Amino acid sequence: MAVKLVLDPGGTRLKFGTVRNGRLETVHSVEWSGLQSGAFEPAAVVQENENTASSGALEVHVLNRPAPPAAGEEWLQVFCRDWGEPEALCTVIDPLRNPGFDIAYTSGHPGSDRIAAAVACQRKDPGGSFIIVDAGTCITVDLLSPGSWRGGAIMPGLQMQAAAMKQAGLPVLQPDDQHHWPFTEGPEGALGRNTLDAIAAGIPWATRKGVEAIAHAYKNIDPCAQLVLTGGDAHHFDGVGGWQTFAIPNLVLQGCAMLLNEHTT
Questions:
Q1: Is there a contact between 83 and 46 (Cβ–Cβ < 8 Å)?
Q2: Are the CB atoms for 182 and 200 separated by under 8 Å?
Q3: In a domain, 75, yes or no
Q4: Active-site residue, selected from the candidate residues 94, 102, 113, 142
Q5: Catalytic annotation on 134?
Q6: Is 250 helix (H, G, I), strand (E, B) or coil?
Q7: Average pLDDT, the chain
Q8: What CATH number does the domain containing 31 carry?
Q9: Cβ–Cβ under 8 Å, residues 61 and 256
Q10: Which of 96, 129, 133, 257 is the S-S candidate for 24 at Cβ 3.0 to 4.6 Å?
Q11: Residue 25: inside a domain, yes or no?
């Protein structure tokens, strides 16, 4: 049986998941440097985690988004070569084509990852309204109402902000071993009494408050909207604004798997 994969080439890493019977199963990720160096072998990781052997046949379905410079021009060939399938069947998943709802952009088009996440939410609850917070390399906050993706906001992710501070010669702010960023709830969180605490007030504390303000604005537009969190730093925004939040890992890849299933059945 062929191995069917959906791939999301993100800003700092490649995320990919196996799809069986139209459903996303195991999900894996690799930083671009690890893929290019050969230190990470996708085929071995998938087979080990699923306790299955691959026949060698490979279907690769890639989300239609620009790969970052760190990926390298031939990242897809490198990925497929690990399977011994340099000529693997490769197709593109484009969520902007017939997503199942209107896209309210006045010019250009939103990132396909944002629409894929919206597809996953809409397919699970077609009549629902969602504020979708995707906290990855960048943080996007989007509003999906029944029948319409209404737009959203984009801001630098926590790691991107910390890296910018480092480039300016300031102390390096990092998450702990559990990938939790420094954060103090309440007004005291904004009052850093040393340089590193001040950076913590200016990055994780202020970014959480910024997401809260955007979500509050969206709730004024659509009071029924529920907050959905995804992305590597999703837990940092858990319970933002005192609202109930729902963490759904790998929302973008889930949307890709759903679209793939719809287009092949």
A1: no
A2: yes
A3: yes
A4: 113
A5: no
A6: coil
A7: 92
A8: 3.30.420.40
A9: yes
A10: 257
A11: yes
